[in-house]
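Sequence design from tokenized structure. All designs in this work follow the same two-part layout: the structure record, then the generated sequence. An example of the structure record is given first.
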């Protein structure tokens, strides 16, 4: 029986060598690991046995990583890291638009993957912990926007807006200082920390997805402004 105090990671990849080596590394670092070799078995397993984070390969038989991510996002905001080959840049960006929190290109350093996993788990925990200095025991309210960090809940005009961990942190960072411009580097630091490298396009993809989610509940949503060549800001009411 798995130690319930351990965080559980799902690895989904049709390359059994990758599964075995990464599983050994993660278990040596104190994680419990579940492995799957295709998207269909992963979807069944993750439905029956929820995990704390999933690492998904893009190219897999039966159900690829893109479709698996879509199915997962329909029911959960589980933190997800994508694995992709260097020549799959379009797939990487598509994965971010679908709601992946991060991606790593193959071949990859297992130390880098471990760092990304830990960083994302820390962000997930932080987003659910009570925020210091915000009103209402972790609730941040800006007009129609409400962010409840204790429950990882975002609403706009009272309607739920399901955000991933990274998306939640980006919205929070912008909304905490309305009118203040945040550069892409500042947003990267806020969402990923200063130990993980991601490029500017990653932030742009996340912001596009955030806007799309808000516009699904309000066609007129325009609170997040782009300042071309500079960054983003949350409009003052």
């Amino acid at each position: 029986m798995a130690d319930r105090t351990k965080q559980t990671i799902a690895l989904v990849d049709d390359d059994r060598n990758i599964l075995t080596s990464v599983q050994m590394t993660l278990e040596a670092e104190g994680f419990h690991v579940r492995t799957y070799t295709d998207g269909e078995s992963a979807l069944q397993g993750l439905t029956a046995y929820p995990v704390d984070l999933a690492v998904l390969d893009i190219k897999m038989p039966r159900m690829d990583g893109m479709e698996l991510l879509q199915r997962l996002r329909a029911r959960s905001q589980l933190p997800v890291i994508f694995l992709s080959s260097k020549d799959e840049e379009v797939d990487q960006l598509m994965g971010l638009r679908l709601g992946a929190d991060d991606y790593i290109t193959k071949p990859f350093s297992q130390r880098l993957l471990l760092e990304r996993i830990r960083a994302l788990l820390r962000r997930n925990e932080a987003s659910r912990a009570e925020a210091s200095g915000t009103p209402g025991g972790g609730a941040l309210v800006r007009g129609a926007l409400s962010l409840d960090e204790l429950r990882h809940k975002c609403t706009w005009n009272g309607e739920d807006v399901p955000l991933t961990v990274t998306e939640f942190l980006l919205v929070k960072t912008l909304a905490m200082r309305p009118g203040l411009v945040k550069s892409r580097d500042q947003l990267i630091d806020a969402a990923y920390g200063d130990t993980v490298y991601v490029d500017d396009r990653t932030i742009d993809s996340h912001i596009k997805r955030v806007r799309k989610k808000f516009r699904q509940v309000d066609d007129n949503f325009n609170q997040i402004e782009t300042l071309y060549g500079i960054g983003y800001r949350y409009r003052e009411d």
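The first helix runs from residue 16 to 28. We note this feature because it recurs in several other targets discussed in the main text.
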